[in-house]
Each structure stands twice: as structure tokens, then as C-alpha cells.
Hints:
The protein is an alpha+beta fold. 41% of the residues lie in helices and 17% in strands. It contains 13 helices and 17 strands. It has helices spanning 2-17, 50-56, 83-93, 117-164, 169-207, 213-240, 244-263, 284-293, 302-306, 315-329, 374-378, 411-421, 517-524, and strands spanning 39-41, 47-49, 61-63, 70-72, 333-339, 342-351, 354-357, 370-373, 386-394, 397-406, 433-437, 445-448, 471-473, 478-480, 493-496, 506-515, 533-541. Strands 5, 6, 7, 8, 9, 10, 11, 12, 13, 14, 15, 16 and 17 form a 13-stranded mixed β-sheet that branches. The protein has a two-stranded antiparallel sheet with strand order 1-2. α4 (117-164) packs parallel to α7 (244-263), α5 runs antiparallel to α6 and α5 runs antiparallel to α7.
Amino acid sequence: MRHWLxxxxxxxxxxxxxxxxxxxxxxxxxxxxxxxxxPRTQPCGHTFCSQYIDNAIKNGQLTSPSCLAEHAATAAxxxxxxxxxxxxxxxxxxxxxxxxxxxxxKPIKAPARGIxxxxxxxxxxxxxxxxxxxxxxxEVLSQLGEYRGQLGxxxxxxxxxxxxxxxLVEQNKSAMKLLELEDTSxxxxxxxxxxxxxxxxxxxxxxxxxxxAQEVFMTINEVDxxxxxxxxxxxxxxxxxxxxxxxxxxxxxxxxxxxxxxxxTTETGATADPVHLGDSASSIMNKVQEITEEIPxxxxxxxxxxxxxxxxxxxxxxxxxxxxxxxxxxxxxLAVQEDQDGRRSARITLQDGQLYLHPLLxxxxxxxxxxxxxxxxxxxxxxxxxxxxxDLGWAGSTRGRVTIQLTPDTPLARQFVLLCTGLWxxxxxxxxxxxxxxxxxxxxxxxxxxxxxxxxxxxxxLLPDLQGQYRESGRAGTVWVRGALGSARSAQFFITTRDRQxxxxxxxxxxxxxxxxxxxxxxxxxxxxxxxxxxDCGVLLTL
Length: 543
């Protein structure tokens, strides 16, 4: 459906510039046909007839009359045929175009009386087999057209890079030669596929005209031979395309030249070992994407993290997003902070499609880690509403995550964020739960957060002024602070596990548990509350 919507949009754009005649080239106003006036799409996305493109090419360059984009070309055949446009025009006109050299198919007839039910069944089986192969041909032809368009796009990029960076001209030309060879192979295979499809369509028509058993057997023999040839072509396409070395070298050379331009260097070691392809039955473009995903990436940025949640259309950019995601999943992305006491780092993890920032700690940096400045990462926090988390554990293992929705427009809530992230040096990481009140009663609660002494006597405030407008609540899951603002324990927190029944409310509320209240209740039932530890903590980053 999305494919047809895209083609319809393109059709409307063409019709507005060609007097509502989509069957005409918008420049020369000739009707598209299946010979010299076939519609061909340029890398910029605009479509014109083959004859106009051949006439417009000068000195190996073609300028699109619609957007003035320049493309390297020596013949119209370098641009892929717009099969979607041809199909759309046929659909809108209600006309079935018969390819050249195709035998005219006769109307479907009822099976001749001289053919037995068994022979008729054989005919229907062969027709079904041919129809299935035709569909497979069309799918692979579409993949080849898309792949060829990507190859043409890469060739254009290589030409542009060659003009800007002469130190890598030879390497760039080598990659282009590989692309030319691959492009030639695609053209050859496309021609073979079109011929095979034409033969299958002819066979389908022949099966509708058989009247005797002898004709059935003779036609079926021809069909079997044709089927075998087409099946071999399909297997050959899957085996040949894409060529790993060509795609890998092309994309890697492009990335190397871009980096060289940005770093004003002339280092040239761009070619890497080919990537192993797994499932050979994958579509051609899926295998192209699999290759590009494995290519080493340039310096990681906060924008790379944000783009993990955005729809990405370009193949290389999509591969980069996937590669960044894999780095995060492997624990190789860290936020770092440098101060007079040295360097601290915080892990950035991915869980259920969400990014989490863990506390800054003095810890070894993993090998081949990618680092971001802590100040940039903190900028991804939602200013109006922050989700913090506490991972509780006991008896040597993590038992679950408690997620708390804070309202950081109050000083106490902002202080909670600072202690979950360790931005000011102190953190709730590895602190114990120390208090359990009214166990089994409606007012049941637990408390912790003594980052200083971890015995209940510490937890001094980090912020100089904690005054603000705080709400009250008596509901289960309320996170609040007990005691006077600015006291020596103002950083300690408390979580209510049951609704209050006496009509009372807890003061100085800083947030509410949105998930994981069952983890807190399980901690309450542990034999010793002081054995429950905040094994990890942090905040949710906004993508």
C-alpha cells in the first residue's frame, strides 16, 4: 500500500507539469513506451524518457531539468527503469501492455472436452507454477532495480568526493570500477530475467490453447524446460547479488573520504575484510543493509542516540543507527565527566527501547568504548518531567527495577535526580534501605538514601535551599521526604507501599512509583530490610 501511495504522489507531481498526461515524458511530451521511450528514474528521483536522457547527456554529465541536479552518465541505460510508473500508468489507463516478442495470449477457455480431468489438473498445476515464478521474477526484478538505483547513487557520491579530495582519487576510482562491474552484471541479469518472464507468460498462454493429450505433453515439456531456466536464474541472482566486496569497499571508501575531509587528513586505509553474509535467501537490499551495518562508524554523538527512535530512509544512515544501537547494547557507550579529581564515567544502556543513564562512578573504561560528555547527555533529560529508577536487590542478586516519575520543579526532586546520576559526586548507588514502618498496616512504608554513612544518620542535602511548593498524598507508591527541610537527613527518601486509610497524607512528595511497586513490597517481606540494597540507579533519557 505504501508503495502505491508513493507512486500516486509521484504521478500527481508529473501530471501537474505535463498537462495531466502521466503517460507522457514531462520534457519531450512523447508517450512512454516499451522501447526507446521507457521511463527511467535518475538518482535525484525525477523520471524522464530514455530518448530525452540520451539526447541531454553532454560530456558524461546529465542535468535534471526539474531540480538541476547533476548526474554522471554516458547513456540512459545507466538509470533504472521505473517499473512502478509503468505499472501505475497501465493500471490507471486500464490497458495491458504486451512486451515485445511476447506471444499474444488468447482468452482463457474452458478445458477442451478431449482432455481428461487428470490432464486438465496437470495444466492447472503448471499454470499455478508459472504464475508463482512470474511473481518471483517480478520481486527479484524489483530488487535488482532498487539495488541498481543504490549503486547509481553510490557512484554519484564517489564522483562528487573525487572532485573534492584528490589524494584519494585512485582509491575512489577502484571502488567505482567495482561498482561498474557490478552494475554491468545487474544489467545482464535483468535482461535475462525479463526474457525469462516473457517466456513464462508465453507458456502460460500456450497452456490455455492445448486441445489434445499430445499437445499437453509437448507443451508441458517446454514449460518444464522454461521453468528450470527461470529457477536457475532466480538462484543465480541470489548467489551473485550483492557482491560483498563491491558494496563493502564502496561504502567504506565513502566514509573514509568524508572523515578525511572533516579531519583534513590524507590517510587512505579504507578497505576492510569482507563481511560474512548469513541467510543467502534474504532479499538483495536486505543483504546490502546487512553489509553496511557492519562497517565501523565515525565519532559517536548525542544526535546518534536521538536518531535511534527516528525513521531513517537512507540505507547507509540506517546502518549507522543499527550500529550505534549495537554499541549501546554491548555496553560500549559511556558518559564521562572530567574534574580535578580525575575521570568518572556512567553507563548508557538500552532496555525495552528506552535509553537509561546510570550513575557516574570511578570505574575502568571498557575496551573500544565510545564516550560522550556528561553535560551533553544530561541535556537529553526532559525538563518538565523526569523518570528515575532504583534497582533493588538482596541475597546477592537484583530483584527488580522501581521507576519513579518525578516533578523536578521542586528542589527535593532535583536533588533526587542528582543522587541518581552522581552528577555532583554523591549517589544512591550501593546504599541500603534502612527503615521499615507500620509493616502490614495501611500506612506501611520503607526508607533509605543515606549516601553518607549508610546507617540512617546521614544524607545531608546537596542543594543549599530546598524550599518549594510540595504536594501531599496518601496513595501507595508515593515517594516523599520526612523531616524538616535542610536537616542532616534531607536526602533520604521514603516510599509508601499501601494506601493510607486514616485520611492522612504524607508531606513533601517528590514523585510517584509508576512501575516496580511490587519489587518494593517484596523487599518489605524480606527478613531484614537492611539487606536490601540499591544495586543501581539512574534516569531515563529522552530520545
